[in-house]
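Researcher: Quick test of sequence recovery. Tokens follow.
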């Protein structure tokens, strides 16, 4: 893909994001079927501010600082430093991180809204930084989502990042949906809700009927946040559900607009907005996707001209000047494009000396689907394996090995209780290593089988380069603190590198909704 085409698609992505968010905002948190055909409020030449885009502007700063090394820990620090809202999952995640809980536990513990919509609304940055490479976009979308979500909330951002990244090379909506679904579990609510919409469209059902089916089969609480004001109906026949289980429904309503809009930008976002619920998010995410597919030419001036190029913010701490927030879609586009060569690396672009043009090297259409990919000489890896780690496991990198620590359950500890951890190690060098393991424990805590141990890590050339062991952490008969901080130290024999993995245990009763 030539640079001017890529630039146009990125610009159209965030222009579509602004348009959809502005269109859907008046119908956010409202339940009803609305007749949306155009903006319903005075625009005054600029878009409405929206956290859908705000968070991505902060993430842009994180990527500009950390590059391809940006991860959940870095994004968590940016959350605490620059994101002001403390509502719902945002507040739960910040509260958890202040308690010492790292992602992915920050997105899970005491978080009723972990299955809600706050993650899939910020997938565009990762898609635009990895155009035509969904296998890369979903990696960073995962790191993003686990800061403040788990399960369905994470699956939703993986789905949207995959289809938006793939949209740089694939324009067929049915194929895009299948690509997105390939990256998430088939038994998830997001998968089943999207499949319901696709099957209903193929059977010829009216979209208004399909909306009713979605709300009945995948009930959400999002549309009940604002009382009925007479412009919609309360639809009391819709089943009640747990507070915060909102993502399957709203992702399905976004896909509803995609398939029934049949490629028309305005018609598509109007259908999504007309469905209410999290209408600004569904319409904004859909507008961004359609912008990537069709570029700026696919967005009629009647939608683009009233809001212009400006970016309006509402959720960012603007007092800290070291976080440089783009003021326009044009500036945002230019800064994303400037990052791509270093973010992707030399394997993904080429420079034509004759024409002086830079081109991005995208996957061909057949390779966009999630599939087994070769990671080592004897090892295949599928992204669904990554999803199995959340919310109780995380990967930690060192220069010479990778470690993942997976907890058997949520980290609640009781007096005289125990909790089990599985440590998985992978060699990054073509030479064997002996690793020493050491637990730093609070007084009277015990690690079984041992506080100090060692493990041999083979090389990929002669073996599979992996090792695994299990530990149980046992608590004393009396607990005197509200939480306990542990550290697992991993060091290689005769090498200076050491990896420290933090572990936090909470002295509290496990909530019933867990």
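Model:
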């Amino acid at each position: 893909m030539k640079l001017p085409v890529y630039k146009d698609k990125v610009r159209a992505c965030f222009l579509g994001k602004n348009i959809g968010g502005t269109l859907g905002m008046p119908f956010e948190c409202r339940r009803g079927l609305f007749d949306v055909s155009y903006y319903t409020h005075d625009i005054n030449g600029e878009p409405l501010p929206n956290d859908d885009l705000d968070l991505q502007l902060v993430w842009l700063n994180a990527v500009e600082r950390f590059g391809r090394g940006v991860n959940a820990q870095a994004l968590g620090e940016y959350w605490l430093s620059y994101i002001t809202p403390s509502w719902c999952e945002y507040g739960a995640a910040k509260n958890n991180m202040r308690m010492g809980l790292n992602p992915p536990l920050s997105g899970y513990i005491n978080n009723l809204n972990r299955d809600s919509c706050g993650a899939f609304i910020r997938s565009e940055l990762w898609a635009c930084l990895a155009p035509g490479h969904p296998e890369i976009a979903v990696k960073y979308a995962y790191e993003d989502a686990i800061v403040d979500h788990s399960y369905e909330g994470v699956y939703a951002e993986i789905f949207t990042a995959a289809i938006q990244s793939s949209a740089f090379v694939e324009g067929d909506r049915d194929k895009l949906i299948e690509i997105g679904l390939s990256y998430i579990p088939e038994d998830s609510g997001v998968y089943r809700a999207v499949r319901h919409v696709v099957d209903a469209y193929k059977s010829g059902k009216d979209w208004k009927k399909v909306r009713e089916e979605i709300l009945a089969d995948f009930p959400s609480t999002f549309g009940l946040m604002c009382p009925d004001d007479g412009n919609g109906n309360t639809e009391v026949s819709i089943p009640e559900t747990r507070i915060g289980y909102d993502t399957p429904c709203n992702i399905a309503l976004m896909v509803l607009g995609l398939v029934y809009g049949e490629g028309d930008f305005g018609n598509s976002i109007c259908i999504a907005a007309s469905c209410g619920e999290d209408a600004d998010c569904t319409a904004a995410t859909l507008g961004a996707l359609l912008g990537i597919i069709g570029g700026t030419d696919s967005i009629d001036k009647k939608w683009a001209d009233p809001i212009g190029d400006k970016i309006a913010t509402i959720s960012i701490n603007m007092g800290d000047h070291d976080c440089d927030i783009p003021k326009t879609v044009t500036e945002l586009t230019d800064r994303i494009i400037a990052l791509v060569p270093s973010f992707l690396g030399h394997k993904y672009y080429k420079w034509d000396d004759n024409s002086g043009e830079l081109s991005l090297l995208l996957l061909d259409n057949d390779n966009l689907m999630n599939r087994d990919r070769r990671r080592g000489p004897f090892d295949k890896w599928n992204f669904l394996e990554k999803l199995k780690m959340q919310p109780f496991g995380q990967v930690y990198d060192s220069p010479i090995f990778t470690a993942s620590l997976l907890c058997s359950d949520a980290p609640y500890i009781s007096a005289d209780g125990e909790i089990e951890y599985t440590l998985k190690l992978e060699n990054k060098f073509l030479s064997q290593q002996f690793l020493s393991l050491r637990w730093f424990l609070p007084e009277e805590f015990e690690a079984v089988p041992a506080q100090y141990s060692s493990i041999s890590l083979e090389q990929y050339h002669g073996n599979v380069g992996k090792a695994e062991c299990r530990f149980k952490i046992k608590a004393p008969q009396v607990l005197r603190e509200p939480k306990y901080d542990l550290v697992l130290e991993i060091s290689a024999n005769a090498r200076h590198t050491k990896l420290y993995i933090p572990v936090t245990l909470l002295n509290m009763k496990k909530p019933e909704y867990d």
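The first helix runs from residue 3 to 24.
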